[in-house]
Amino acid sequence: MDVKGLKEYLSWLYYQYLLVTCSYVLEPWEQSIFNTVLFTVVTMVVYTAYVFIPIHTRLALEFFSGLFGGQHESTVAFMS
Amino acid sequence: MATTADLVSNGNIHRHNQNIDTFKSDAYVRSGFNSHCNKHNGKANGGLDKRPFKESFDQAPLYVAVLTYVGFGVVTLFGYFRDFLRACGLEKCYLAQEREEQKDFVPLYQDFENFYTRNLYMRVRDNWNRPICSLPGPQFDLVERVSDDYNWTFRNTGKIIKNVINMGSYNYLGFAENNASFLTTVEDTTRQYGVGVCSTRQEMGNLDIHNELEDLVAKFLGVEDSMTFGMGFATNSMNIPALVGKGCLILSDELNHTSLVLGARLSGSTIRVFKHNNLQSLEKLLRDAIVHGQPRTHRPWKKILILVEGIYSMEGSVVRLPEIVALKKKYKAYLYLDEAHSIGAVGQTGRGVTEYFGLDPSDVDVMMGTFTKSFGAAGGYIAGKKELVDFLRTHSHSSVYATSMSPPVAKQILRVLKCIMGQDGTTVGIQRVRQLTENVRYFRQRLQEMGFIIYGNEDSPVVPLLLYMPGKVGAFAREMLKKNIGVVVVGFPATPITESRARFCLSAAHTRGMLDKVLNTLDDLGDCLSLKYSRHKRSIQDRTLRRNSVLNH
Questions:
Q1: Contact between B551 and A30 using a beta-carbon 8 Å cutoff
Q2: Do A19 and B475 count as a contact with CB atoms less than 8 A apart?
Q3: Which of B71, B529, B547 sits opposite A22 (nearest CB)?
C-alpha cells in the first residue's frame, strides 16, 4: 500500500476542495465553521437518503403495480 | 495583378497571394479594396482578407461558472456573518466608522458598497501593491512583507526577495533599463536642464527638447505633427473634452479604458457604447445616429467620434482597424485610436496597429498613445494632422494647466525612438521588436498546448490566463511568488465577476530561459490548482507526478 502517495493525494483533494468552495481565503476558525456545517448537511442528506429512499421506492412500485395490475384483472374479467 | 516584387516587399506572404499567382488569366477579379490600395500605395498591403486575424475567447465548461458562483456565495455569506459580528461589537472593526453621536445622521461610509472590499479583497490583499525596490526590468527585487492579522496591516521583515521574474510590468521592448552606457544622453540632459520644469506648456514650460520630441514622434508615426503631454491618463481625459462637446456623439467600445471613459464623460457629449470589437453593433449605432440625429430635436450630430484602443489590456484583443476605417469613411465619422499598449509592441517595425494592418496612418484622425509602456518613460502624445495639433496646443486643458514633460523623461523617449527607428546607428531597436514578437508567439503557443484558456489575439503581448474562481486567484499569485515569479492577478470589479484572470505582459528583455522557467512553473501550478480548462488540449500529460511535486514546499 502506497500510504505516502495516498496521503498526498488526499491532501491535494482537500486543497482542491478549499479552492473550489473559496474556503482558502477564510480564516481557520471560519473554515472550521464552514466544514462543520457542510459536513452536517451532507451527513443528514446521506442519512435521509439511506433511510427513506428504499421505503419510498417500494411504496411507489406497489402503488403503480396495483394500479396497472388491478386494471389488467378487470379487463380479463370483462373478456371472459 | 500583384507582381512578385510586390509580394516580397509586403513581408507577409499569405496563402491568398500565392493563389493569385496560379490564376494566370486576367479574368481573375480582385476585390475592390485591394486593387484600390494597389493603385494608390503602389504595393500590396494588408487588405481585409489578407491578414490572418486569430483571436480566441474560449468558454470554460459550465461547471466552472457554477463553482465560481458557489465560491462567491460562500464568501458573501461569511461576509454577512463577519459584518454582523462587527456590528454587534464582538469583533473590532479596522475600517473607518462614524462616531456614536453621528449614527443617526446621513451615513458617511456606504456600508454595502464597501462590503466586497471589506470581506473579499482584504483577505487576499497581499497580492497587490507589493513594494518593489529595484528597476522593473525583466527581473526585479521585492520587499518581503508579512501580515499578522490577515492582511489588515503589513510589516516588512527586512529581507528582500531578489531576482523575481517580472511578468507584470508593461516593459514590452525592455527599455526600462539602468545600464549607464545607454543612459549617457539622459544623464547629460539632467545635468543641463535639471528634473523639474516648474511651469505649464503655455507659460514657461515649452522646452526645445519638447519640440524635438514632437517632431520625432510625428516622423515615427508617419503623420504631420504631434503633441506630447506629461501624463498618459491626462492625455485622454483632458483632450477628448477639447475635441468634442455638447451636441456631439461619442461611440465608445464596451471595454475602453477608464481614461477614455472619463474624458468622454467630462466632454458632455452623448455617449453610446457598442459591443467589444463588434462591428455590426457599431454600424447599427452609426446608422441610427445618422438617420435619427440628436435625441429630441433630430438635428444632425455636430461630430461623431469613435473611440477605440489598439490593444485592450484586459482581454489582449486587437481592434479590427481595417473594418472600422471602412465604416468611418462610409458614415463620415472621426476615429480616435488609443495605442497605449500597441505602440512599439505590434507592427513589423513597432509602429503600432496601423502598421500591423498595413493601413495608411492618415486614415486615423486622432492617434493617441502613451510613452509609459514600450518606451520606459512617462507621458502621452496625440498625433495627426497639423490643424488638429495646433488646435490642441491652444485648447487642451493639459497644455494650459498641466506641467509639461520632465526633460530627462523626454530625452529617454527621444533615445528610445531613435533606437527603434535605427537612427542611432545600431539595429538594437528592430532586434528588440523582433524578439518581442518571437517571445509572444512562443509563450502563447506553449500555453495553448498546455491546455490553459488564453484570451486575445495571437500577436498581442498581453496574455490573460483565465482563473475563474476567487479562491484560485489568491492561491495562484502566492504560489507564483514562492517560485520567484511576480504576476498580476485581476478580479472583479476590473473584470466580469466570473472571469478573474492572471495577466502576463511579455517583454523583449525576457530570455528564453526565463520564459521556460515561467512556463514550467505554470504547467506544474496548472495541474496542482487544476487550471487547465481548455477543451482543445493537444497533449495529454501525466499529472500525478506534477501535482505532488508542487505541494512539497
A1: no
A2: yes
A3: B71
Q: Which residues of B touch A (CB under 8 A)?
A: 67, 70-72, 74-75, 78, 81, 120, 123-124, 150, 469-472, 474-475, 528-530, 544, 547-548, 551
Nearest to B221 by CA among B310, B330, B124: B310
Q: Are B205 and B363 in contact (CB under 8 A)?
A: no
Q: What span, in angstroms and rounded, lies between the C-alpha atoms of B343 and B216? A: 14
CB A20 within 8 A of CB B469: yes
**pLDDT tens track for B478-534:** 999 999 999 999 988 888 888 999 999 999 999 999 999 999 999 999 999 999 888
Alpha carbons B402 and B543: distance in angstroms, whole number? 56
Angle, CA B498 vertex, CA B494 and CA B503 arms, to 5°: 50
Quick one: cell of B95? Answer: 475600517
What does the pLDDT read at residue A79? 62
On whether any CB of chain B is under 8 Å from the CB of A55, the answer is no
Query: What count of Cα atoms within 13 Å lies in the side-chain half-sphere of residue B70?
Result: 14
**Helix, strand, coil content of chain B in percent (nearest 5):** 45, 15, 40
Q: What is the pLDDT of residue B98?
A: 77
| B398-446: pLDDT as tens digits | 889 999 999 999 999 999 999 999 888 888 999 999 999 999 999 999 9
Each residue's pLDDT tens digit, B8-30: 434 344 444 444 344 444 443 44
How close are the terminal C-alpha atoms of chain B, in Å?
64
Grid coordinates representing B217?
Answer: 514622434
Choose among A12, A23, A34: nearest Cβ to B547: A12
Q: In 10 A of CB B161, how many CB atoms? A: 16
Residues of A in contact with B551 (CB under 8 A): 8, 11-12, 15
Q: Which of A5, A12, A19 is opposite residue B469, by nearest beta carbon?
A: A19
Contact B76, B492 (CB under 8 A): no
Q: Which of B456, B477, B137, B508 has the alpha carbon at shortest distance from B313?
A: B456
DSSP string, B77-133: HHHHHHHHHHHHTSS---S----GGGTTSS-SS-TTTTHHIIIIIGGGGGGSS--B-
Q: Pairing between strand B462-466 and B501-505? A: antiparallel
DSSP assignment of B59-89 equals PPPHHHHHHHHHHHHHHHHHHHHHHHHHHHT
Reported ipTM: the value is: 0.80
Mutate one of B123, B124, B127 to test the A interface: name it (highest A CB count within 10 A): B123
Closest CA to B344 of B454, B221, B210: B221
Its pTM stands at: 0.83
